[in-house]
Amino acid sequence: MKTIIVTALLAASCLAANAQIGKFINKVKKQTEEAVNNAVTTVTEGADNIADAAEKEVRDALNDENTLVYGDHRYTMQGNIAADKYRKNGFGNVTFTNIPSNFEEFKTIYTEFLGKTAYGAAAMMPMAMEMYARDREVGRQCIELLCYPSNVNSVISIIKEKFGANPNDSYGQRYLPAASLKGATPENAYQPLRPYTVEMEASVNQHQQLQISGSGTVVYIYIMAGGWDTHQRSVEVIKQPGKDLYQVFNCPSLYTGCKQIIGTWAGLE
User: What angle, rounded to 10 degrees, do the helices at 136-146 and 103-112 form?
Assistant: First the structure.
């Protein structure tokens, strides 16, 4: 009988001990889980802070390096379309508060800023066309500066007729440069959003090396615009060896007639 009682007491003690050990293990497990969760949270928060800081640094760098101010006119650009490599998802955005006031401003913007990128040069074509519409001689100088030599006469011969003296002529479309700007549609009388923006995407056509005459890499770009049914206006720019600036190699899509305006065009600033 005593043996049975002792055995029972030992069993009870073991059960109690096991219960205490189980509680201890659960407590340690819970503390470990909490510690791991806290560590993960700390690491996640740290990573988020690093990511936020990196994003801010990129934004600051863009603001510093991708903006040029000329007088009270402001020009910005952002993108990755370039002659060094074809990027299927390449893009480019150029914004500007005003059309350049004169050739000197246009030249500065081109040589010191926008002309250094493929998409920047492409975005200057609507500016050059608008300047030609305002002043034939100034516009001619801008087009000669911006365009590859074989493209100059092609552009001028067409837009000279497009910007004819008779605004009621259905062929004449004085608002044609505005049709390439973001937000401009025939329904809103080709009034683009402000600041003016030229939105671009990489063409499905990959870069080509110029073979016919001269040398250089031809980059194909789409300007996304609401003045045409396709919404894609193809512009070819070229980067020649040893030169820092891109030139517009071909751009018939930009001076092909857009949809007829609904209402009265108010002009560009």
Answer: 10
